[in-house]
Amino acid sequence: MRQELMSLPKTLAEDVAKNLVMVAKLLDDEPEQAYQYARVALRLASRVAAVREAAGFASYAVGKYSEALAEFRAARRMTGNSDLWPVMADCERGMGRPERALAMAGEPEVQKLDRAGQVEMRMVAAGARRDMGQADAAVVTLQSPELASHSIQPWTARLRYAYADALLAVGREDEAREWFAKALEADQGGTTDASDRLAELDGVEFVDALDPEEEADDALKPVAEPKVEEAEVEELKVEEATVEQATVEEATVEEATVEEAEADAEPEAVQPAVEEPQSDEEPEDAEDEVVEPETAEDEGQDDDAEDSAEDVEPTAEARSEDQAGLPEKDGDDS
Known about the structure:
mainly alpha; 334 residues; single chain; 16 helices
């Protein structure tokens, strides 16, 4: 690629190189952005084979199989290299022409491929068989020395994964689970989702905690009030009961203090109990009721009550005076 870029003016070569670097950097995680950078590089240097190849892979990553196939064919004409043959066949599959992909698997160009390319071509052919409804033939197509090998190669995980998926398609679930486990064992770079397929077969369901749709739904839901733990509730109840009890006791003490103060300030007045005379005979009619004047005996009782009250008051006063006149005792009589 460097030799091809050196044929361009220096400034133009630098711009093209920067765009190709961004394509390689974003192709796996951000294919749409990689595609945009590839289109810029293609406008700047469409006659460079490396640019056409990069544009082909960027188009392939976003599902634009017709554009990808055109770019791959252009790059192959420029270089005469057959390395792109398997991905070109897979573009035919993507365009809904699996029979063409299967035909390409039998072309002489396949013999020019290295071992990795031939394994890739085998997987494309198996996919074409499945597209055509030949699931059992797909299983047979993937059976090869590379599949039976115990050595771990760059293609091992993907080959085992494809074989496990083909077995699952024909209902051989136990064998499929075994080969998904083997694929996971060889998948050191995380190129497959073998772990998820194993979990699915075991009945384990994963929930994406960062699902944007679920986050949007949660945003529309009313916010629930925070729950208080039972221990905290009990503690709050005890505190409230303690405060209420302290308030009641404080009020009781204040009332007792007020009553004592009132008792010390004013002596209790002695009121005589006056009994009203009761008549043995009830009057027949309310109109015949006659109010009799108070007898002398009643008057005498009233006078005695008044005298008793007067006698009590001086007595209390006299006691107060006597107590005030007593000399204070010294702390030590000796």
